Amino acid sequence: MLAQVCSHINEFGSPAHGVHRSFDNPFRRSHKSNNGAVVIGIDMRVEHACRFDRGDSVGNRLDSFRPPAFAKIRDTFNQSLHDWIIILVVPPDRFINQRKNAWQRLEDLLKLLDTASLRRLRREEVRELGRIYRRTASDLAIARAESRDPRLINYLNSLVIRAHGRIYRADAQGGKRIRHFFARELPQTFRRTWRYTLLSFSVFALFALIGFVGTRYDPEFSELVGVDPSFRELYIETKTPWWESLNDANQIGATSIMTHNIQVTIYTFAFGATCGIGTLFYLAINGANFASILTLCYRAGFGNDLLTFVVAHGVVELSCIFIAGGAGLLIGSAMIMPGNLSRADALRTRGMEAVRLMVGVAVLLVVAGTIEGFISPALIDPRIKYSIAALTGVTLYAYLLLAGHEKAKSQ
Predict the structure, then answer these.
(1) What is the pTM of this model?
(2) CA 130 → CA 25, 102, 161, 227, distances in Å?
(3) Which of 29, 97, 225, 338 has its CA 20 to 30 A from that of 404?
């Protein structure tokens, strides 16, 4: 592009005129065009006003370049220094062709960083990464201001976000990276996506209410929500507290419970790939099933015993299910409501949010499984279990709602 500009400029003066050009700031001025082209301002300084005696003929030549596909020149005169501003209107295709090699190189460098840290790159590659990143950020600003192609804007936006994350978070590796994730990223991600978690909780609670009401008036309703009839015969009708068997082998029981809880949360999350429908169904069936079993126990006369068993670990465990459900709905929403992004970009962006939530869920499930295997079935004062429930609930939600605020404000 610069070569073409120079060729046009050379028509306006011979080498004897001593024209000195500078392209120090190619993006200094820009104006919008009517045809959606990308407009780039270029400064050219011409010294010695006495050498502009051909200005009239130059002006006549410029008239042929009036169409927006070429250029518009405005000159301002001083005594010994004249600034010429060339406003070059570049069609979007030319804008892309001139910069696509730099964008592709940035993608190649980011792929290298996917398998290695920033410290593994050569010094030249690190400098090149910074230079191309800044250039691409400038291209994004130009595209947002001048281009009407949302695909170009979304592509550049995604590329700049990826590069920013790799460059400015590269120093947080190993233990530092883990501390940063749990101290900042996880609670901030939870707060950004709280609506999805709330929707997950609402679906679970609604169908839990349906399961409670239906089973209260007809015990056989429980079969519709997944309660096996043999379960009613073996445990409900005989009033057998089946959870107390965990005391016989706490370690095995805790491992089995963790495995089951992980399976439930993974299903809840993974079914988000069905546009969120599978996640909603899994939340609904689990809510109705849980409430139905609790109602059967109350009808049999030992519901308080089951509630005392559940309460200690239930706050953390159910929170994990709600967060996993919210993560699944994030994936589903990216597929059916990508917003201003393409579906691929929406899946990439919201998918990263969902993965962060699931990493936090995995850690919380270990806590829930440990409590459920060792504390929940223990024959201890129920007030201790309720106190543990209150302590874990307050601690968990204070962390999710309050952690990371100071850092976010300073940034």
Answers:
(1) 0.60
(2) 18, 12, 13, 59
(3) 338
